[in-house]
Design goal:
Elements lengths: L1 E3 L4 E3 L25 H5 L2 H5 L4 E11 L38 E3 L17 H15 L14 E8 L9 H13 L4 E4 L8 H12 L3 E5 L35 E7 L18 E4 L3 E4 L13 E5 L2 H18 L5 H10 L22 H8 L8 E6 L6 E5 L5 E6 L9 E8 L2 E8 L4 E6 L4 E6 L6 E6 L2 E6 L6 E5 L5 E6 L6 E5 L8 E6 L2 E5 L5 E6 L4 E7 L2 E6 L6 E6 L4 E6 L9 E6 L2 E6 L6 E5 L5 E6 L9 E6 L1
Length: 640
């Protein structure tokens, strides 16, 4: 724990103990993970089932520096790709020359390793490396320990010297550097009793830029007889942890320490404000600086340390995993995930009821909810073709319903055709009456945004073209395509050559412009937005539905045909064929695609059996949607 005062920064993370308290075995093969009891306490293995991190996620460690060559860290050290190493030029024009891995704000130099040059203490000079290892020691590499995030990019920013001393200006500069150089998360295992406006402004700039800010609530000395001398942050605030927004915005996740019995650590501060979440913070084994020229620094790992400084990077690591798994989530959405899924510890701390934040970090609960997030990440959209309630259902890949909402009044049973449209980074679901002429646009929470009726077309189907909606009729004799805005304004309409079986927009001709690709009998007709025919791709005549995936054209069988999925090159060369369902099924196939998956649903005479395949025809997952006795077929889509 570091103490940040108005001019000077001090620290003190606790005492060095000589024995571990528990042995923990878990799935990563890092041999020293049996020392890391806290992995089990926060249920990190449940999170690792979904993600072990991503090197695209950048975590800034504002501290005494990171040993960037440590054998259990070097693969996860951030690299500034905008700089050229050692050329003495500020290549990326960020105001810092040769800042390849971070910056030393005390000495104003590019080397972000801990420094032995101006005096240090064992506790201080190890601190930044220890904290960084908790967040992101390379995991599952059969060496050392595992960080919470096996894969991450650690940005080393020195604002404290080897004793833990520093000034406010350097802390502010480090926060601003992290914000402007792409950090997703800032870890500040530092705390003090004074602040100033510049620190508050830097925190606000970071938060408003979408950065997740995590800070320790601070330690107090434990009395000789084990007295709890911790302070109430409401009456004696600490900084930066208490620098939340003036209007009640929670800019910083404040982290306190608990022991293995879920009791507040004697040294850990508390309060109804500033403290948001708790994590284990006692008896940590972790990374040392490795400098064999010094006799005291020839071991790469040691323990056992305690302090809110160590609880803090557990929360930072958790945020890094969430950001890896759901990169589109905002900082506040990640805050909410962490806090809403905490386990209350009030029953273990009756003297501090209501003063322990939301409770204890629980990654199992966090990821149980995160997997179902659809509004920013994705889900499989399903609706019935006919004779079923006009609802839209959104499923995850495990077959669990994430959300559902009525597309039309319950009296309408004519079937719902669906599509996804994006506009200004927002996603929408478009529903069309397969047995009528009405279109409705919903956001991903199921709230209707617009509706209109389509003139001169009935039994309508929909597809997207960028932020536009394409509309046509299931009546094959009607060959008109209409192009609408999300507000229902008609932009264009034109007639195509041949019956329209399906439409899928995409860049088949590789000109970096999405075209209107119309599946008709034995052809894909490629039109531009003005309705001009640009190209024709020959296929066989069995296709009734169309999708694109990477550099492949995918078709699903037409009604009356064997249930084939066919994969073509962009020039129409047949690459492979496989069956989506039993070969005797001839009801046709509805098809969609996203990422690496092809998602299919049966046609008008099939049960609601959704299946997903890769491009090689390997089944990825399957489940039944709607009511299994429904044999009217389903329409499928993907929102991501």
């Amino acid at each position: 724990m570091f103490k940040v005062f108005k001019q000077i920064v001090y620290f003190g993370i606790g005492v060095l103990l000589l024995t571990p308290i528990i042995i923990f075995a878990q799935s990563a093969n890092d041999p020293l993970n049996n020392e890391l009891y806290y992995l089990n306490e926060i249920n990190v293995e449940d999170a690792w089932e979904y993600t072990t991190g991503n090197n695209n996620v950048i975590v800034a460690i504002i501290d005494t520096g990171i040993d960037i060559d440590h054998p259990d860290l070097y693969e996860n050290i951030w690299t500034n790709t905008g700089e050229v190493l050692g050329d003495g030029v500020d290549n990326d024009n960020n105001g810092y020359i040769d800042d390849i891995n971070g910056w030393d704000f005390i000495r104003d130099e590019a080397d972000p390793n801990p420094k032995f040059d101006s005096g240090y203490s064992d506790l201080g000079i190890e601190h930044g490396t220890l904290v960084a290892g908790i967040v992101g020691a390379k995991g599952n590499n059969n060496y050392g320990i595992s960080g919470i995030a096996w894969n991450v990019s650690l940005m080393s920013l020195i604002a404290l010297d080897g004793y833990g001393n520093g000034n406010m200006t350097d802390v502010v500069a480090a926060i601003d550097y992290a914000t402007t150089n792409g950090a997703d998360i800032i870890n500040m295992s530092l705390v003090g009793s004074a602040s100033d406006n510049e620190l508050q402004k830097a925190i606000e700039r970071a938060y408003q830029a979408g950065v997740i800010v995590v800070a320790a609530v601070g330690n107090e000395s434990v009395g000789d007889m084990g007295q709890d001398n911790s302070i109430n942050l409401v009456t004696s605030p600490r900084y930066p942890v208490c620098l939340d927004g003036m209007m009640g915005d929670n800019y910083i996740l404040g982290v306190g320490s608990i022991d293995i019995t879920n009791k507040k650590s004697l040294f850990s501060n508390y309060g109804t404000e500033c403290l948001d979440i708790n994590a284990p913070g006692e008896y940590f084994y972790g990374l040392n600086i490795y400098q064999p020229i010094f006799s005291n620094y020839r071991e790469k790992f040691s323990g056992y340390w305690s302090g809110t400084s160590l609880a803090t990077p557990l929360v930072t690591g958790a945020a890094a995993l969430i950001k890896s798994y759901r990169p589109a989530l905002t900082n506040q959405e990640i805050y909410n995930l962490i806090l809403d899924n905490a386990d209350s510890v009030d029953s273990f701390n009756t003297s501090y009821t209501g003063k322990m934040g939301k409770g204890k970090l629980n990654l199992a609960s966090i990821f149980s909810q995160a997997k179902n997030i659809v509004n920013t990440q994705g889900g499989i959209i399903v609706a019935s073709k006919n004779n079923f309630l006009p609802y839209i259902y959104i499923y995850n890949e495990s077959g669990e319903i994430i959300s559902e909402f009525a597309a039309f009044d319950n009296e309408y049973l004519g079937g719902v055709n669906i599509s996804k449209v994006e506009d200004n980074n927002s996603k929408y679901i478009v529903a069309a009456q397969a047995g009528g002429d009405m279109i409705r646009v919903f956001n991903t929470q199921g709230i209707m945004q617009n509706e209109w009726t389509v003139e001169n077309l009935t039994n309508i189907k929909v597809a997207s073209l960028n932020n536009r909606i394409l509309v046509w009729s299931e009546d094959y004799n009607n060959t008109i395509i209409k192009l609408y805005t999300l507000s229902g304004d008609l932009l264009n309409e034109f007639r195509v050559a041949g019956p329209i079986y399906d439409i899928y927009s995409g860049d088949i001709d590789s000109d970096n412009v999405n075209e209107i690709n119309v599946l008709t009998t034995g052809n894909i007709l490629i039109y531009n937005q003005l309705g001009n025919l640009d190209q024709k791709i020959l296929l066989d005549g069995t296709a009734g539905s169309l999708a694109l995936l990477g550099n492949s054209i995918i078709t699903g069988a037409h009604k009356g045909q064997s249930p084939n999925i066919k994969i073509y090159s962009l020039t129409g060369e047949l690459l492979r064929t496989f069956n989506a369902y039993n070969e005797n099924f001839t009801g046709g196939i509805d098809i969609s695609s996203s990422g690496d998956n092809i998602v299919v649903g049966p046609g008008n005479t099939g049960g609601p059996h959704l299946r997903s395949f890769d491009l090689m025809g390997n089944l990825q997952y399957e489940f039944f949607t709607l009511d299994q006795v429904n044999s009217n077929g389903i329409n499928v889509g993907y929102i991501n």
